[in-house]
Amino acid sequence: MLAHDLWVTRELAHQQRADAFTAGWRARKVSGEQHPIDDFLFTYYSYKPSILRRWHPGAGRELADAAHMPRAAWKWYVSGEAHGSLRVDAAAYLRAKRAGVDAIRRVLERTAARPGQFSCFGLHEWAMVYRQGEHRHEVPLRLGQKGTDVVVDTHSIQCSHFDAYRFFTPEAAPLNRLRPTREAQSQLEQPGCLHAGMDVYKWAIKLGPLVPGEVLLDAFELARDIRWLDMAASPYDVSAWGAEPIAIETSEGKAEYVRQQRVFAERSNELRQRVIKALDAAEHTAEAASA
Fold first, then answer.
1. Residue 104 has pLDDT above 80, yes or no
2. How far apart are CA 238 and CA 257, in angstroms?
3. pTM for this one?
């Protein structure tokens, strides 16, 4: 049981933190400006700031004196054992979304169990513009088109992430050592992959009320930090947005990329375990409710 003052304080802190994370995106929606680094978390993942702002305690916790508050009308909330309390209905959520929950757990557990691979050097972004005159981002290429193509031609492409691989240009796709598919995602994901690290946010938000709000915002923060490395090491010149280039075509750039990549692998695995722990709590709560 979380006392009323305690959970309201946590909810307010969550909302303030979420508002700080989304302030730039919300301002740009009004001004019409674009940010090629930060906008990715709202356009590619397409989750509204209002969803990020919604705090959940996670399964197995009751919120005291909550029945009179707007939360009482939220989906997946029911009355708790104490008078006037609310809790997440983990059993109902798991019954309704069992297949999706199991698929997410499978990806998280198998990814965390594998050793990280640290030899891709972020070349997935380069493969997305290989031998192309038009690009997804209206940002100049740091080495120009010919220089970018040379980097791809002189390196080994070994992307394990389907949602990156599917954006490879037709000329680049055959150069990849792997052929990732959606069906094989749980067999290929590994913690060294930047996009797999960003996806922890996607999995956390998909699990909705089962994941405590603090875990969700930590996952968003991780995704934001990874995105900055992803673009700094990309073929794009994003220095105008404050990202100093990491020249992965050089030995020094490769070393810096791997150094940061290893840190993110550790952070992403820690968050995977926290999401898995939230799922365990949901399963335990559901079992207790049916006993």
1. yes
2. 16
3. 0.95
